[in-house]
Every structure is written in C-alpha cells, then in structure tokens.
Amino acid sequence: MGSPWAHLHWPKSLCSCLHWAGRWSHRSGCAVPGPHQHLPSAPASHFSQGCGWARPGRLSGTDRSAFSPEQEASHRFALPAGGAEGAAKQESFVLSTAGTDQVKGVLTLQGDALCQADVNLKMPRSNQLLHFAFREDKQWKLQQIQDARNHVNQAIYLLMKRDVNYHFKTGSEVLKLMDAVMLQLSRARNRLTTPATLTLPEIASSGLTRMFAPALPPDILVNFYINLNKLCLTIYQLHVLQPSTTKNFKPAGGSILHNPGAMFEFGNQRYEVSHVHKVECVVPWLNDALVFFTVSLQLCQQLKDKISVFSSYWNYKPY
Questions:
Q1: Is the dihedral of CA 144, 293, 310, 58 positive or negative?
Q2: What is the DSSP letter of 127?
Q3: How many CB atoms lie within 10 A of CB 118?
Q4: CA dihedral 179, 184, 185, 189 (to 10 degrees)
C-alpha cells in the first residue's frame, strides 16, 4: 500500500490565511511571495469523505486563484490597497486618551515606519503649550512590526520552500512542519501583544530623542510602542535631583510604562519622573493581523489534531 500522505492537500482556510498573512506583510512594508507561489501537497485525500477540508487530486488553476492575496485582502483586510509595486500607503491617526486633553497630536504611519509625529503637550501647572514634531528627513522604524512581519514571512517560507509536487511521507513530518509554523506565528503575535521593557536610561539614549524639531527639552522623554492594535506614545516629564536631596536614590528597572517617582541616572545627572502622559491611537490593520494570528494558529492546531488521528488509524495493527 502506498503512503497515505502522498496526495493530500492543505485546507483551503489555511491557504487563505497564509496568503492573507502575506498581504498583511506587504502592508507592513515588505515584499511577499507572489500569488502564483503555492503550497506543496499535504495530508489527506484518503480520508476526504470524512473531512471536508481535504480533497483528492491537485488544486486546479481556478482553485488556486481563489487563494490569491488580492482576493483575500479584499475580504479580510479593510484597508485601501496600495498595489504590489508601490510603497505602503501613509495613514494618519489622531492621538487620544480618556478624560484629559493634556496631550494632543497626529501620528502618520507608513508600513512599519512612523514617518511623522506632530504632538502638543500642555505643561501641568503653567499650562504652557509645548509643540514638537519629527524632522522632515527622519522616520522611526517600529521594531515590533518589523519583527512580526519577519516571523510571518518565515512561516510562509516554511510552507512554500518545498516544490509544489513534493509529497509528505509520514504524518510526523507534517506535524513537525506545523509545529515550526505555529512557533513563528506565535512569535509574530507576541511581538504585537508584548511591548519591550525598557529602562529610563535606554529611553533617554534612544535615537528617538534626536528625531524632533525643535529638539526636545532635556526634561522630556518620549517613547513609541505597539500594544495589541494600538500605537502608543508615552511622554515623561522629569525634574533634576539635586546632590543635596534627602531622597533615597533607587534607580528604576525596566518597564513598559514607568510611573511618577521613578528615578534614574543619565549623563552623570540624576532624574526623577514627575509626570507621565500616555496617549494612543487604534491602527485597524494591526487588529486584523491579531485576528489572523489567532485564526491561523487554530487552523494549524486543527490540522495537527486530524493528522494525529489519521496517523493512529494507519499505525493501528489489529491482533
């Protein structure tokens, strides 16, 4: 009897999600596999009667066109298409926070690059308005989006690196591949859901401080990061701790968000955070990406579960 894995195909839903992942990857500013690159044969025509996700025979050209990134994007990705050849489209988002107008601004995002930030900060007590914006020749790359995109591309590569005529020989081979794909998808999701923990000296020494015109005052720190489907801006107001202060100096460790009272030392000077302002804006396609990661991981797990059942069936040897 031939191998039960010889003529089996990926579920339509998984193909669709992976092609859509490629479209999301393009949205975040990276080239993706073309619509005519397809997955190799995979499990399970011998069980097609019991499983609607499997069909015998090869995918026809008509079937394959249904999985194209453009069509999936139109159904799943409610952003205006920028075209495969063009750069990612610039999108502007208004910063806001509930219950205060201390900070107002607009952020302009182009793929994984923050290409403009225009921010107004109303200083506490004095109500003085401080305005700062990116220099026109500067862009700030959002590492979280870059990393998530790279993990998505790696997941797609793992599935597409085999020839379209490749036949899997064992169920364990498919399970091993699914584990590798799921690892990349989990890492991609985690990069968007878990911002980096930074110390205040790390924020102070970041190249972000040199992005603005006019230059930021020495008592202001800023940090941008992704948290789920939101692009967040945190502004720290500082005051200098004099050498004669009676406060017990205790440097703060790494954190996503530092609280007032946090202390740190930078450039032979000690500081304390006096005020913290956090504002954010929702980026719709980041929400779409998170949905994709969740659905794709579920589909991969479903495929693993079915392959395990099929493997048990084929490995069963009655007495």
A1: negative
A2: -
A3: 15
A4: 140
pLDDT at 61: 32
Amino acid at 208: L
Residue 24 vs residues 42, 55, 226, 298: alpha-carbon distances, Å = 24, 28, 16, 18
Look-up: residue for tokens 């009272």? 261
Q: SS3 letters for 135-166?
A: CCCCCEECHHHHHHHHHHHHHHHHHHCCCCCC
Give the pLDDT band (50/70/90) at residue 95.
confident
Residue 5 makes CB contacts below 8 A (sequence gap 6+) with 42, 43, 44, 167, 168, 169, 170, 171, 173, 174
Q: How far is CA 192 from CA 75, 121, 188, 230, in A?
A: 23, 27, 7, 9
Whole-prediction pTM value? 0.75
CA neighbor of 67 nearest in space, from 132, 119, 13, 108: 13
Report residue 37 as tokens.
Answer: 């690159």
Q: Under a CB-based contact definition with an 8 Å cutoff, are residues 148 and 289 in contact?
A: yes
Domain ranges for the chain, please list them: 12-73+143-194+284-315, 90-136+196-282
Would you give the end-to-end CA distance of the chain in angstroms? Answer: 19
- Rounded Cα gap, residues 141 and 148, in angstroms: 13
Structure tokens belonging to residue 285? 């396609």
Tokens of 206: 């970041």
Q: How confident is the model at residue 319 (pLDDT cuts 50, 70, 90)?
A: low
Q: Are 252 and 258 in contact (CB under 8 A)?
A: yes
